[in-house]
Amino acid sequence: MQFTDLEQLKVYLQQDAQVPDRFPVRYINVDSMEMWVKVKAHLSTIAHNSLRLSDFCENEDTAPNLTRLKSSIRTAKSSTLVVPLSEYLRINNSIAKKILNDILKANFENSHLGKLRIYIPLYRMKDILKSTDLDPREKKCIAYLDMNYDSDYSLTIVQDDLNVHLQGNQTRGYREYLRYWEQNPDKPVIFHTKNAFQYQDIVFADEVTVITNAYDLLRHHLHLPADVVQQFGTEAQWKELAQSYCETRNLEGAIGVLLPANQYSESLFQDWFKYSSFKQWLLWLWTKQKHLGGYLGHIADKSESVDEFTYLVHGGVLDLLASKNFEHLASQRRKLIADMKLQPPKAFLEAVADLEPVSQIMCLTDLSQKEKRMILQAFSKCRSSNSARNALKFTFPEAFYYLAGSNLQNKKIESYFSIYREQKISNEISDIFLQEVNDLAKENGSLLWELDARNAIVDNLYHNNEVILFVDALGIEYLSLLQYMFITNAYDVESRIGRCNLPSTTEFNTDFLSNRKHEKYYKLDEQKHSSTNYPDNVIAEFELLKEIKAKVDELLQTASAVILTADHGTSRMAVLYRSQSSVHPCKESAQLEKYGRYCIDTSNDYSEIEGCFHYNNYWIFGNYSRFAEKGAPRCETHGGASLEEAIVPILRISKKEFVSIKRTAEKITVLTPDINAGMTNTVTVAFKLSGNYSTVTAIIADQTRPCEVSNGEYRFTVAVKSSGQLLVKLRSNGIIIGEFSIKVIKGISSKSDFDI
């Protein structure tokens, strides 16, 4: 029977109660909570008794005992109201039809007079009622009140231990849920129960959502974005997120509260190591939702968990080796690793080890000791490859710039150290290089004598209010790396190379410090005399150079400039080369020094030994031979006259902000713009300045020359080896005052470059 008006229903029920009927059940379906409340209220006035399902719950959170309920209905002695049966049936819809039939067709003990009525209001049960098999005599047992249909009804069943408060009308436990319906319910209804998991596989006919875990809560009730899938997190993570999400109802807002962060930024990864594992997961999830570009976006999109993401911070590069943007992506990756302060995973390093050497270098960074070792070991296998060199530039810049060279004007020295550095960083020595060392040694150090003495260069460079940083064992091999460290917008740098005093030991190379402000640094020398093995020895030296730079910065806080130089260099090759033929006995009268790199002997002559020459009272090796002596250095040595032992860098470093105030743009008149060197291999350069300076120094490539002044003209003389343009910088009192170029023409020479 159908009704479109509540009053019609009331009239019908009143009339129906007067007509005997052996079928006492009256199901009354309503489609809105408003009508439910009104119909229930009316039925309670015409029924003599009521059966509340909540009274049939044996505990706070157990379902009502339907057997007892049906027994009470069957034995009812007078008109009875039963509520709220539909709310039990709604979440047990698989048995709803059977229960309705059982009650409808029950053998009622007190229905023989036909006056018994069992009133059961049902909310939104029309489909089930219409599918019930009815005897024609039972059709009047079902009434439909078709008005005020609820389109926004929803029931949410929540696992109680999630301990969340959702927007809606909260009920906790089965008994309270039923009591809520027995009173005056409203939408939406939230049913918290410890047994929610029992309903998770049921297909409901109505808008019923079952939430048995935190992810379900976020996804189905709080509208978590659909692309955030459950496997992205653990139940514990989703549960903790849900606590905040329930307040904000927004993923970004919830994550922002929990981290905390006002807005998303890649700079948040700088705090990664400070975050708890939960906050790390939140930041990964947030990043994944942003669908960023670049390396971060690549690994965030690819990862399915925060653990996989953490691995891909390193390992994601393996997929990008063929990318045209590899170097750019690798730079982004390096910054991310540095921000997150992550060590490379073992699985990543194992995967890299299976690659060919150049690819190994490309996949690694200089942010961990293990990776730096692998880079240098890989480079030793492919050092002739330009691709390997290029890869070093963005994976291990210090190694790249150590190898880069300084474009010295003396091309013979430049070539020598290019090979030396490559062999040192690879921990190998070639026969070709050994031959070059021996050939130079036969010349008794003549190449050294072509260079200015370090002492003379320091004399020209040093001025008041400056300080010398004396670094024991800082050889010329580091010049290009030092230039890389200092040649930025923050510094003015003048680079020179010079020969130290022989023998190449500290004892004979500190005289230039006298009466000058200076500080000494010995850690580099200590490292070179240690037992550190390759490649850790090279890595340790690079780290110490960073420390030396920091020391220069510290000194520049008070000094106008720092003169960075050394007593001597050292040789790794002399340690690697341990041929028996290179060990020579000496006489009993000899005093051996530095593992036999030289000896003091005024009574004997060792000039027949290849590479050994006499200097003052010392017999010094210019190659890698040595006098026989017990023991041997393990890392590096010095005392001899090989180029790496005897040539040192001299750098004058000043902060640009200091000199910019005093820098003078002097007008320079060059009196000798074109000079013919003739047969003397020297030229005298003359010029005038608009200002008056008592002392002026000319800086030409790797050398400095003091200028003589007479009648307003400045002059200096310099040796040349070839024709070409010669760039001259002028300095006075530590300040660059200008520069100019001259053209040198040298006889029949066909070279276009210029050497000093």
TrEMBL record:
<protein>
    <recommendedName>
        <fullName>DUF7863 domain-containing protein</fullName>
    </recommendedName>
</protein>
<dbReference type="Pfam" id="PF25263">
    <property type="entry name" value="DUF7863"/>
</dbReference>
<dbReference type="InterPro" id="IPR057185">
    <property type="entry name" value="DUF7863"/>
</dbReference>
<dbReference type="Pfam" id="PF08665">
    <property type="entry name" value="PglZ"/>
</dbReference>
<feature type="domain" description="DUF7863">
    <location>
        <begin position="227"/>
        <end position="380"/>
    </location>
</feature>
